[in-house]
Design a protein that fits this description.
globular; nine-stranded mixed sheet; 341 residues
């Protein structure tokens, strides 16, 4: 099991910022740990997009940069390096400022990709090992992720929360998406501009009183593996751009079929699909599901089969293809430089 432990700073010391904390089993026990505190600094104006900050004359709120907390990469037997490059370049094109990833043991080609983007400053990598009693050996871990799915997903809550809190002072807005997912905003130039437009309205969602929102939830549209485009001008190594058609198949809604954007002013604990703890105590439920016509997460997974054969069962997503001119040359250059194609 994974637990979040909180220790409120006493009121008499509330003006101080702790540099490190110790964790002990019982009060007054001798401390054997010393954990550095991160994320306690004040957020400064650099987290807002240049020339898009708050306008005092028009009372316009700032357009905040958006960061992405991705998964802990454990792809040791599977080489997803080419698709990882496309994913990162598409995130950059949509306006994401930085991507944070955790890394266990990965394929050598994935390691090359991570090193490249870390040197560029677009990606930050935190080394991660699963705590005891889990074994940090790649072959054993592969079996564990295949056979103990619930344990794996529970463990994810730890490093997703660590990522969000570790960078809460750098970014007010942090989204969680995986390498087989992409943020889509059909009516806005970038994802941060869409978030600014959505959260600056009088009410974040119809029927709700204006207040401190906690998270926004973007529902999935499936861009299935068997909906590949016939456009011969797209390189074969562009997986997401070659799967710009999406299935309109209806499925039952749940928070498990959405991906969140967290407001780091209130976030304390998260999982892959939703906010689970807020800094002021129990979350108030200000978690809003966004209509898919406004914004959604494209999920590049599974096959559609007979459900997608009717003429009205799928549709093209032009918002994804508008990045072609920017993303294709960038991906090609990186793949050639790293000798992946």
């Amino acid at each position: 099991m994974v637990f979040i432990l909180t220790c409120r700073i006493p009121k008499n010391n509330s003006h101080l910022k702790p540099l490190a904390v110790s964790l002990v089993r019982r009060p007054c026990e001798r401390a054997l740990t010393l954990l550095q505190v991160v994320g306690s600094m004040e957020r400064d104006n650099s987290t807002a997009i240049a020339n898009g900050g708050s306008d005092q004359r028009n009372n316009r709120p700032p357009i905040w940069n958006v960061a992405v907390c991705g998964p802990a990469l454990f792809y040791y037997h599977q080489d997803i390096s080419v698709r990882l490059v496309e994913w990162l370049e598409l995130l950059r094109a949509t306006g994401v400022a930085k991507v944070f990833l955790s890394e266990t043991d990965v394929h050598p080609n994935i390691q090359k990709v991570l090193q490249y983007y870390v040197q560029e400053g677009f990606v930050s990598v935190t080394k991660f090992t699963y705590p005891e009693p889990y074994v940090n050996e790649p072959n054993t871990r592969r079996l564990w992720t295949m056979l103990k799915r619930n344990e794996m997903f529970t463990m994810e809550n730890m490093y997703f929360t660590d990522c969000a809190l570790r960078h809460m002072h750098e970014y007010r807005l942090i989204a969680h998406i995986d390498p087989d997912e992409m943020l889509i905003v059909p009516n806005h130039e970038t994802f941060p501009h869409w978030v600014a437009n959505r959260t600056s309205r009088r009410s974040v969602t119809p029927g709700k009183e204006n207040g401190q929102w906690e998270s926004l939830h973007l529902a999935w549209y499936y861009h299935n593996d068997d909906l590949e485009t016939s456009d011969a001008s797209l390189p074969k190594y562009m997986w997401m751009l070659r799967h710009s058609r999406r299935s309109l198949k209806a499925y039952r809604f749940s928070f498990g079929t959405t991906k969140p954007v967290f407001n780091m002013d209130v976030t304390l604990g998260v999982n892959s699909h939703m906010l689970i703890a807020c800094g002021f105590g129990y979350c108030r439920g200000q978690n809003f599901v966004i209509p898919r016509k406004e914004a959604y997460v494209a999920h590049f997974k599974l096959t559609c089969g007979d459900d997608c054969k009717p003429a009205n069962a799928t549709e093209e997503e032009p918002a994804l293809l508008r990045y072609n001119a920017k993303v294709i040359p960038a991906v090609t250059q990186v793949l050639q430089k790293l000798q992946l194609i």
